[in-house]
Design a protein that fits this description.
The protein contains 15 helices and 17 strands. It has 421 residues and is α/β, with parallel strands linked by helices. The chain folds into two domains: 5-30 and 309-414, Aspartate Aminotransferase, domain 1, CATH 3.90.1150; 43-306, Aspartate Aminotransferase, domain 2 (3-Layer(aba) Sandwich). The strands form five sheets. A seven-stranded mixed sheet has the order 4-10-9-8-7-5-6, with helices on both faces. α4 runs parallel beside α5 (140-149). The termini are far apart.
Length: 421
């Protein structure tokens, strides 16, 4: 069934507003933050006005209703990625989830309290493998873990097309490898990672795999257990949900072995003045008061995505990707990443010869077009291509071919505006 894009756009009131002197808004920054449909806002409002209460605490009716809604939201988000509810840990976002895993390794390395946790203990001579395409949130935590434990950080490079170079796969992932952390989709090149090859190599040597699914969860059908990763993280605000909420997925075995990193109420089983024991996952990783209303919103976003159907979504966004790639037909534009629409999402990063990306962004903004400029929290991959920053346009299901045509027309005026031949 083809998507009714007009009906979809009507669910996003913000798309009707004007900016910069009455110009229609063309929002091409969904890789940073997606807009929210009415269903998400209404779900959060309905919970706030009718069921708000402390979860897993009170015995009064509001507390029970809030707890039921919170756990139902967990189950809904779990279904979106093929997981069981007890494999889903609520976090404040993907950054928090990735840091949770890295810090769990650190705690295990300081002295595991259980035999199971020893699988996460690192020492000098061990190796952590990442990629040159990582967002800083899936790079810096592993840098810090390497420094803290004496492990060596190694990485896959990126080829001239912007795709991961796996030519040295079995050399880089070897018997010393303990951690392999990688993105599903690059937030700069839009390239989709061949997960199966990396996971198979990691499994052969018993390494733990961690997937950054932020740029894939709203665009590709995900079955995390089928992918075989041990952990994965993604954020609500990149999948049509609210900010301030995200998910860490972990297999039951991995979550049960990982030491907790945050401590306080809601995650303890027994407490004395000298010691404490902890609840089983996922609650042992959810200390303190949770972001209940935001979790309700994230679940509404998951339902909204499922109702669209990922086959329909992928087909439509592939057409948008083809339209975005036409920017290279404009003189002076160079794309960073693959120049073909296969095995990528509807995102394109580029540089404009002779014009700084911030200046490009300002010209486009004056035309009512919102894009991202800068390093996109991914400085190493920009270094790989010899540029300090870039312009990124990212589309999703509420964008139209007409909007992308208008974006290209405005982009074509940038170099002439600055008098660049």
């Amino acid at each position: 069934m083809a998507l009714d894009i007009t009906a979809i756009r009507e669910q996003f009131p913000i798309l009707d507003r004007t900016v910069r002197g009455g110009k229609p808004l063309i929002y091409l920054d969904s890789a940073a933050t997606t807009q929210r449909p009415r269903a998400v806002v209404e779900a959060m409002e309905q919970f706030t006005f009718s069921h708000n209460g402390a979860v897993h605490r009170g015995t009064h009716q509001l507390g029970e209703e809030a707890t039921d809604a919170f756990e139902a939201a967990r189950a809904t988000v779990a279904r979106l990625v093929g997981a069981a509810p007890d494999e889903i840990v609520w976090t404040s976002g993907a950054t928090a989830g990735l840091n949770l895993v890295a810090n769990g390794f650190k705690n295990a390395s300081l002295g595991p309290k259980s035999a199971a946790a020893s699988r996460f203990a690192l020492k000098p001579g061990d190796e952590i493998v990442v990629t040159e395409a990582e967002h800083h949130s899936n790079l810096v935590p592993w840098q810090e873990l390497a420094k803290a434990t004496g492990a060596e950080l190694r990485w896959f490079g990126v080829d001239d097309e912007g795709r991961l170079d796996l030519s040295n796969l079995n050399e880089l992932i070897n018997e010393r490898t303990k951690v392999v952390a990688f993105t599903h989709v690059s937030n700069v090149t839009a390239a989709i990672t061949p997960i199966e090859q990396i996971v198979a190599a990691a499994r052969r040597v018993g390494a733990t795999t961690i997937l950054d699914a932020c740029q894939s969860v709203a665009h590709l059908p995900l079955d995390l257990p089928a992918l075989g990763v041990d952990f994965a993280a993604f954020s609500g605000h990149k999948m049509f949900g609210p900010t301030g909420v995200g998910v860490l997925y972990g297999t039951r075995e991995a979550l049960a072995a990982l030491p907790p990193v945050n401590f306080g109420g809601s995650m303890v089983e027994t407490v004395t003045m000298t010691d404490a024991t902890y609840l089983p996952p996922p609650m042992r990783f959810e200390a303190g008061t949770q972001m209940v209303t935001a979790a309700i919103g994230m679940a509404a976003a998951a339902n909204w995505l499922n109702n669209l159907g990922f086959d329909n979504l992928s087909e439509y966004e592939n057409n948008l990707a083809e339209e975005l790639l036409k920017v290279e037909e404009i003189p002076g534009i160079t794309i960073i990443g693959p120049r073909e629409a296969h095995d990528r999402v509807a995102l394109v990063s580029f540089v404009v010869d002779g014009v700084h990306p911030h200046d490009v962004g300002q010209v486009l903004d004056d035309a009512g077009i919102a894009v991202r400029v800068g390093q996109h929290c991914a400085q190493p991959i920009h270094n790989r291509f010899g540029v300090s920053s870039s312009v990124r346009a990212s589309a999703t299901v509420y964008n139209t071919v007409a909007e992308i045509s208008a974006f290209r027309e405005a982009l074509a005026q940038v170099r002439p505006f600055f008098g660049v031949d």
